[in-house]
Design goal:
This protein has 213 residues and is α/β, with parallel strands linked by helices. It folds into two domains: 32 residues, no CATH class; 144 residues, Alpha-Beta Complex (Nitrile Hydratase, Chain A). Helices cover 41% and strands 11% of the residues. The protein contains ten helices and four strands; from the N terminus they run H-H-H-H-H-E-E-H-H-H-E-E-H-H. The strands form two sheets. Strands 1-4 form a two-stranded parallel sheet. The protein has a two-stranded parallel ribbon with strand order 2-3. Helix 3 packs across helix 4, helix 4 packs across helix 5 and helix 7 crosses helix 8. The chain is globular, with a radius of gyration of 22 Å. The N and C termini lie far apart (64 Å).
């Protein structure tokens, strides 16, 4: 007798759908990470709880952290100057740990628009923005952002005047970029807390802009 397989046929005793086992073979880099991690624990360089603590810390980071830095730069010209001179040092003033990574902050202006990419892999300012979006890691974005940045920006809904210069910045393992978006003129009376809510992840990568309100 034929049997139709529907979703409700694949339920656990608790009534929830079964989840497919993640039993794919480990990649070279996954094996390398496990080996190095276990070796460092065995050598006493750090403990498993310390590793978990760092993972939790990284997972807690989000674009809201970057938005805090951007809003402060909009409100405080002196902080903005320090941010553009040394992004990591300025961010640490707001208690965001950047570490040894060199953070370069590039400013959007009415004449210049900056776009961030990592052509080799997925280098990204995770310390301020959290995990990168999936599209940022795709080969298509990594190649096209360099070859045809205006077309890519248009597909993200960003239409720039022909007179605006588009600068593409290629991140590396030890150098990350963050875009300081152009502040809308209509936000002159807004508080720093209000400004934070306007700053999106994409605007700090360059694939988005902040609209006038």
């Amino acid at each position: 007798m034929p049997h139709d397989h529907h979703d409700h046929d694949h339920l656990s005793p608790s009534g929830h759908p079964y989840r497919q086992d993640n039993d794919e073979p480990l990649t070279y880099w996954q094996l390398m990470e496990i080996s190095v991690r276990e070796l460092m624990i065995e050598k006493g360089k750090f403990s498993a709880p310390e590793i978990n603590q760092q993972i939790d810390l990284m997972d807690s980071r989000s674009p809201a952290d970057g938005a805090t830095v951007v809003a402060r730069a909009w409100m405080d010209p002196d902080f903005k100057k320090r941010l553009l001179e040394n992004g990591a040092s300025a961010a640490e003033e707001l208690d965001f740990e950047i570490g040894p990574m060199h953070l370069v902050v590039v400013e959007n202006t009415p004449k210049i628009h900056n776009l961030i990419v990592c052509t080799l892999c997925s280098c990204y300012p995770r310390n301020l923005l959290g995990l990168p979006p999936d599209w940022y890691k795709t080969k298509e974005y990594r190649s096209r952002a360099v070859k045809e940045p205006r077309t890519v920006l248009t597909e993200f809904g960003v239409s720039l005047p022909e007179s605006t210069v588009v600068r593409v910045h290629d991140s590396t393992a030890d150098m990350r970029y963050l875009v300081l978006p152009l502040r809308p003129e209509s936000t002159a009376e807004m508080s720093e807390v209000e400004l934070r809510k306007l700053v999106s992840r994409d605007s700090m990568i360059g694939t988005g802009v902040i609209q006038e309100i």
